[in-house]
Design brief:
- By secondary structure, this protein is of the alpha/beta class.
- It folds into two domains: 93 residues, 434 Repressor (Amino-terminal Domain) (Orthogonal Bundle); 198 residues, Endonuclease, Chain A.
- It has 14 helices and eight strands.
- It has a six-stranded mixed sheet with strand order 5-4-3-6-7-8, sandwiched between helices. Strands 1-2 form a two-stranded antiparallel sheet.
- The longest helix is centred in the first third of the chain and has 19 residues.
- It is elongated.
Length: 305
Amino acid sequence: MSAIPRPDGGEQPSLRRYLDQPRIGPTALRIVLGARLRRLRQECDITRVDAGKSIRASDAKITRLERGQVGFKQRDVADLLSLYGVLDETERADYTEMARQANLPGWWHQYSDVLEDWFELHVGLEEAASLIRSYEVQFLPGLLQTGAYARVVTTLGYPDAPASKIDRLVELRLERQKLLHKPEAPTLWAVLDEAVLRRPFGGPEVMRPQLEHLIAMAALPNVTLQIAPFSVGALAAAGTPVTLLRFAEPDLPDKIYLEQLTGAIYLDKQEEIDQYSLIMDRLSAEADPPQDTVPFLRSLLDALS
């Protein structure tokens, strides 16, 4: 099966490339499949309304499918492929297999009793990312928290939740962190506001092992930590906590994740990506260099002794 031509003259990789990479996960596969179907529809100059009619649905459903926001019925995929003139049996089989894999539950589904819908997308994308850039102003990134620190932060966010829910949320957070230790682990580049490290969440008994954990994480080859000192406060104040997710796969656009108290915003328009990337680049340039991070963390540890 040949690759799909790209508008810039290059080629899109075949779907088989994605099917042979289980680490991508069902969330990313939904986005890839939706993007491919959208491209096929546009190449055929077919409206979302007409595409919707072919699968006995509305144009709104086509929009959700093409954005990877919902799962795919294999019958719908087959009908859309016929509408778009994709008749090669091998190619259709790859689309069908991608639809099947995209509907499989990710490991995080075992936490569906506590996992918010708006955060589930982030966990799935995080799993497929090749680069995770993060800037935090209030708490440490979830991927860097110890269990004790995570418990304090989670309890602040869910003050009325039963202990059983807090336990499950902390367990989910620690399960996410295994991503950084896998053979094909993504690169994590986190800029931490100095105030985050000086804020005594849980007291010395929580912060001491947390600082030790950060020192250990900074030693990993795929983890870069920087401290944004108070002196760059004016620049830091220009943005809220930001996470940029970048993917090695050409069908997966960069995502900006902006978490709020009771929800999150996901941005993927190129102008938005460029704006936040510039902010992240400026923060990284003005923050202390990575080689200063461990000495700074050790000084904080000494102050707690």
